[in-house]
Amino acid sequence: MLNRFMQMRLRDLIILAVILFALPLFLNNPFHYDLATQMAIIAATVVGLNLLVGFAGQISLGHAGFFGLGAYFTGIMTSNYGWSSVPALVVGAILVGIVAWIVGRPILRLKGHYLSMATLAVGFIIAIILNNERALTGGPDGMPVPAFTVFGWELSPFGSYNLLGMELNGSEAWYLFAAVVLLVAVWLAQNLIDSPIGRALRSVHGSEVAARVVGVDTARYKSLVFVVSAIYASAMGSLYAHFQGFITPAVAGFDFSILFITMVVLGGMGSTMGVILGAVVLKLLPQVLADFQELETVMFGAILMLTMIFMPKGLLPTIQTAVGKRMKKKAGGQA
To answer: Which residue ranges form the domains of the chain, and what is each CATH number?
Structure first.
């Protein structure tokens, strides 16, 4: 059974890689590449959040706070203290993981609405701090962030690069980099899911009482996955800051947190590929509905509402179930 699941994960990863590296054939200008890059970075963020929400069954309505902390730590250290991007990203992720562990231990004892409100409060506190610490963060006006650098090599949306004989502009190079990051994020998540830790998380989701009865240290595993999801958010926040070149406290705000959790729910909780689909859909919808002007928000909400009513398990699990039933029906008819 485990081998079958591992084969399915590998198949999904290969399919995702093919889609990501074939996508440039359909991207016509820098705007398309920039949008695809944002999708990849945000998709990697919600892959981490899905470990917490979809597999461990713990809600978080303030996850953008960790995303914002990673973005601002990288921005401050590279802009003001001359750090290289990779050390700033790594140290920022470690520090955010420590913060997540400190705040996660007490709040993860809560359940249901109480847990939702506690995580929401964490996000609000982080956003308020980023708004008020003007000397470090620039306050509501935000701050510039330099280009991403590694070993003296600079990745800028305005640069020009040669990769294996191919001439790439900055937008194309950033997309390929973000695509590789997304694949690595998915691979790490899949390995965690298929490990004993992943099985413990699923047991916590199924029944926390039953998990404790069979010897699962539920508090430890909930804290662990909370820290892992925060590290995902921090690392992707750092990349997002470098890619955008400018950040404001909005990256840690309530809107981003709701966007992240909606992507998980819409795509399919507990489905790694599903949450990536949710990220793509929610990033594309505003572009598709832009022509409707004042009706855009209404139509956006209506689409989400109808999806949740008729596809309560999420987009991808519902599609997979429908395809599976049709294939079984055809196989039965042929027999």
So the answer is: 27-288 (1.10.3470)
